Amino acid sequence: MLKVAWSEIYAHPLPEGHRFPMEKYELLPEQLCYEGTLSSENFFAPDRAQKKWILEVHEEAYLKKLTSLSLSSSEIRRTGFPLSQALVDREIHIMQGSIMAAVNALEAGIGMNIAGGTHHAFSDRGEGFCLLNDIAITAAHLIRAHGIQKVLVIDLDVHQGNGTASIFENNPKVFTFSMHGAHNYPLQKEKSDLDIPLKDHTGDDSYLNLLKQNLPALLDTVEPDFIIFQSGVDVLATDKLGRLGMSIQGCRERDRLVLDAAKRNQIPIMCCMGGGYARKINDIIEAHANTFRLAREIFF
């Protein structure tokens, strides 16, 4: 059975007028259940991530400031969020959601988190709507607790996974692959193990051809025994914060390529949702829902 991490805490509201679309975390599970892709039995509510796993990748001084709500005003501005205890609690639950989704994938082949993909969080700071880095924490947990020797991070959000790249810069057990808009946030890019920067308005054909060219070679050379897939849908042409030109169908085909490759090569995969800021909430929900539909189709 496909297991999906989700909790009501994911939809914690932000002040009115804030541009981060928190409503997608409530609407997406509703849509998936309404159409019959998932049922209530597919969802599990994660607890808080243990401090020891967070400290595998984050500095203790930063975690202490975050959890005590003592970040400086400049540190808070960098995250893009108004800081609150509810927001920090939400983030810590999301970390555990990704950890447990990955553990489920070790048995079922795939596990998914309705949230996560917080790839802009560095070891010592948060940035870009990311307070803690669930991709990094999950990879560290797999290596420490489950004996995984090589994790491949496939980050296809429109924004470079700069925090993840920095955290694993000198870690041979994690290979970071980021395919992102060259001129999108962050202005200052980090160095992933493989970066593919894309021109503005890159459409379906060019994007998918590049992915088809690189993904098989990555699997052959990296030889991962686990994949973490950041499946952000801010690659859409309608996205307010993206600069690419993909259609919803193109985004679906992107996900199919990744999930098919994992299934065909018998590599467990954990999918976290990443960004999505289209002008129409329906576009965000449809694009994210496709990832779950494909997971059911390919793995079950």
From TrEMBL:
Residue stretches making up the Histone deacetylase domain: 18-286
Domain of life: Bacteria
Keyword Plastid appears in the UniProt entry: no
Record protein name field: Acetoin utilization deacetylase AcuC
Gene Ontology molecular function: any one: hydrolase activity
Family membership noted in the UniProt record: Belongs to the histone deacetylase family.
Presence of the UniProt keyword Protein transport in the record: no
GO biological process: epigenetic regulation of gene expression
InterPro entries the UniProt entry points to: HDAC_classIV, HDACs, His_deacetylse_dom, His_deacetylse_dom_sf, Ureohydrolase_dom_sf
Cross-referenced Pfam families: Hist_deacetyl (PF00850)
Keywords: Hydrolase
